[in-house]
Every structure is written in structure tokens, then in C-alpha cells.
Amino acid sequence: MPKDYVRLTQPLVRDGGRSGELRPATWDEALDRTVDGLRAAGERHGPRTYGVFSCSKATNEVNFAAQKFSRVALGSNNIDSCNRT
Predict the structure, then answer these.
(1) Coil, helix or strand for 1?
(2) pLDDT tens-digit profile of 5-51?
(3) Least confident span in 29-33, 61-65, 78-82
(4) By CB count within 10 A, which of 6, 14, 54, 55 is most buried?
(5) 72-78: long-range contacts at Cβ-Cβ below 8 A with a sequence spacing of 24 or more?
């Protein structure tokens, strides 16, 4: 790996919108912001905002769980997998 790359050891959050500076945060804060952002997107644009991708190499149970999560938890029918290619 080139020397100019730095490995992240903790989550970073941005204050002040997209142009704000990144700063270190706790995992709880980073996950809370993620949940808030996903919730806001769903409220603003509806459940079709979300999509789930699954893999044909996963078990049927895993693909079923992904489908169920997409439809029940997210309210979206947008689910796809690589097995159709």
C-alpha cells in the first residue's frame, strides 16, 4: 500500500453539512447519524428510496431474510441479486 494512505481506526462524522470538516466520533454517534439519515431519506422520498442487493452465492435463507427485511422493515420491493446476470 502506498505511504500516502491512512487506515481509519474510528468513524468520522461531518459537522455543518457536506462542506463541513470531518472529525472523529464514537461508534454510537456514527450509527445514530446513519439511522437518522436513512429515516430522513425515507420520510422525504418514501420507501422506494431504499434498495437491497443480495448474492446468488448466499444461502436461500440469507436471500429470504434480505427480501423479508427489504419488504417488512424498509417497506420497499426494491430487491435485486446477481443471479440474474
Answers:
(1) coil
(2) 888 899 999 988 788 899 999 999 999 999 999 899 989 998 888 88
(3) 78-82
(4) 54
(5) 74/42, 74/47, 74/50, 75/42, 75/47, 75/50, 76/47, 76/48, 76/49, 76/50, 76/51, 76/52, 78/48, 78/50, 78/51, 78/52
Count of CB atoms situated within 10 Å of the CB of 52: 17
Q: At residue 85, does pLDDT exceed 80?
A: no
CA atoms within 13 A on the CB side of 81: 15
Query: For residues 6 and 12, is the Cβ–Cβ distance under 8 A?
Result: no
For residue 19, count other CB atoms closer than 10 A to its CB.
6
Among 39, 47, 84, which Cα is nearest to 63's? Answer: 84
Kindly indicate the confidence band of residue 4, based on its pLDDT and cuts at 50, 70 and 90.
confident
